[in-house]
Amino acid sequence: MTRDDSEQRKNIRRTALLMAAIAVAFYLGFILMGVLRA
Amino acid sequence: MTTAVADSHEAHEDHGPAKGLTRWLFTTNHKDIGTMYLIFSLVMFFVGGAMALIIRSELATPGLQFVHPEFFNQMTTVHALVMVFGAVMPAFVGLANWMIPMMIGAPDMALPRMNNWSFWILPVAFGMLISTLFMPGGAPASGWTMYPPLVLQTGDAFPFLIFSVHLMGLSSIMGAINIIVTILNMRAPDMWLLKMPMFVWTWLITAYLLIAVMPVLAGAVTMLLTDQFFGTSFFLAAGGGDPVMFQHIFWFFGHPEVYIMILPAFGVVSEIIPTFSRKPLFGHDSMVYAASCIAFLSFIVWAHHMFTVGMPLSGQLFFMFATMLIAVPTGVKIFNWVATMWRGAMTFETPMLFSLAFVFLFTIGGFSGLMLAVAPADIQYHDTYFVVAHFHYVLVPGSIFALMAGAYYWLPKWTGHMYNETAGKWHFWLSTIFVNLTFFPMHFLGLAGMPRRIPDYSTQFTDFNTMASVGAIGFGVSQLIFVYVLLTAKKGAHATDRVWEAPRGLEWTVPSPAPYHTFDTPPKLRVAQESFE
Question: pTM of the predicted model, to two decimals?
Answer without folding.
Answer: 0.94
